[in-house]
Write a structure and sequence with these properties.
By secondary structure, the protein is of the alpha+beta class. It is built from 5 helices and 11 strands.
């Protein structure tokens, strides 16, 4: 972790704030590196966080078995991995009303109609979940009042430039430097 600031004490304070927020959100083990640039004289805050690699997204077919019964016109979903049941229900409730999903027992769901195409539906995406948590940390770390924010994130790096003025090209360059350094592992 590197916090760049001309004021040594200010850098130490921000390092403590960042560590505390990461600890509160249990993000320490999910992040490879972090670079921040703070300049109170030129009100800017640049923050770049490299996330660790996560496991692949989990599709419906990875954790459940979908079959369609033509006679009853019902799609039956047999849950193979109960750990994903809350995610499955959450995804289905976004697509259907709760009344349309019948659950005769803990491991089985039924929906009227042919919905076997749902097998490719993503029920859990660890990368997206981690990214959401990192953005939560970023918005807790940013100084209050810095409402002008440019998101420069890439696949594995969450990077923002925040200020209360117009964003300067030099700040965007600084963010791009941080992204390059994090990608190279510097």
């Amino acid at each position: 972790m590197l916090v760049e600031c001309y004021d040594e004490r200010g850098a130490e304070v921000y390092e403590i704030i960042i560590k505390q927020i990461f600890q509160d959100l249990v993000l320490g083990s999910s992040v490879d590196d972090l670079k921040a640039y703070v300049n109170p004289d030129d009100p800017v805050f640049v923050l770049a966080i490299k996330m660790k690699k996560t496991s692949n997204a989990i599709a419906f077919e990875d954790v459940a078995n979908l079959t369609y019964d033509k006679d009853d016109d019902v799609t039956r979903i047999l849950i193979d991995n109960e750990n994903y049941l809350p995610n499955i229900l959450k995804r289905l409730w976004r697509l259907f009303s709760r009344d349309e999903i019948y659950q005769p027992n803990r491991y089985q769901l039924e929906i009227k109609g042919d919905y076997t195409h749902l097998k490719t539906l993503i029920v859990d995406d660890p990368h997206s979940n981690l990214q959401r948590r990192v953005y939560d940390a970023v918005f807790r770390i940013l100084p209050e009042g810095f409402k002008i924010i440019k998101d420069m994130s890439t696949e594995d790096i969450v990077c923002v430039v925040a200020t209360d003025e117009l964003i300067k090209d030099a700040w965007i360059e600084k963010a791009n430097e941080f992204i390059d350094e994090l990608n190279k592992g510097l």
